[in-house]
Amino acid sequence: MTKVCAIFGGSRGIGKAVAQLLTWKGYHLAIIARNLEVAQTTVSHLGAGHMALSCDVSMEQEVQNTLEEVEKNLGHVNYLVNAAGVNRDGLLLRTTSEDMVSQINTNLLGTMLTCKAAVKCMLKHQGGAIVNIGSVVGLKGNSGQSVYSASKAGLVGFSRSLAKEVARRKIRVNMVAPGFVHTEMTAHLKEDQLKKTIPLGRFGEPHEIAQAVVFLLESPYITATIQL
Question: CA-based angle 180:132:225, to the nearest 5?
Fold first, then answer.
């Protein structure tokens, strides 16, 4: 069976690392990002058999159209990775409503919409696997990230609930909630101070998180798991 995976947020960071690993494993990938040019650049380094698409995950019709385009060109989507995310760090009292909506729409609503569209396809073909990328702050909280933490905490309840809804239809849903990882989103953080709070004493790397994501995608049994 052809393995087709749609990776939202696959043009950089953890999503890009997942794409690189899945390429080595023979998957056909749709790299989906808001910025088409960046997605195309990522695809150009993956080799043949992949495609780049632009999509605003907070817009339901765009999400639906995007997955239809993937099916038309690569085949039915049997794997989905949600790595798209934004953060607007700051104390709640200094956070604008626009920044709140932006984070909730991308990090939480966007994942709900991509899962909804992908599950429709997976149901038709009797199986599939989804991995959502959350954050440890969604489980433990973090000062200055109350809205971002809320959006990622919402993913925990959503992922576990969806897993229970679709498990009997041979669709598995899991979530990875990494700590601090070297990406563009964490480039502004004071790493030396944060290292003291991390058992290993260092930030993670995208390719290290990608291994956990791919493990959950390919596991024939694990579902409703939140893996740190």
Answer: 90
- Concatenated DSSP letters of 64-80: HHHHHHHHHHH----EE
- Quick one: how far is CA 138 from the chain centroid? 14
Of the candidates 55, 54, 10, the residue with the CA atom closest to the CA atom of residue 28: 10
- Residues facing residue 192 across a β-bridge: none
CA angle in degrees (0–180, nearest 5) for 121-127-128: 75
> Any catalytic annotation for residue 221?
no
In the chain the domains, ranked by start, together with CATH numbers, are 4-227 (3.40.50.720)
Show the tokens assigned to 218: 């390919």
Q: What are phi and psi of 53, to 5 degrees?
A: -140, 155
**pLDDT, tens digit (0-9, with 9 covering 90-100), for 15-48:** 999 999 999 999 999 999 999 999 999 999 999 9
Residues 142 and 148: their CA atoms lie apart, in Å, by 9
H-run or E-run covering 30: strand 28-33
Query: Residue 190 has what pLDDT?
Result: 61
Is this prediction's pTM over 0.85?
yes
Catalytic residue among 27, 79, 148, 221: 148
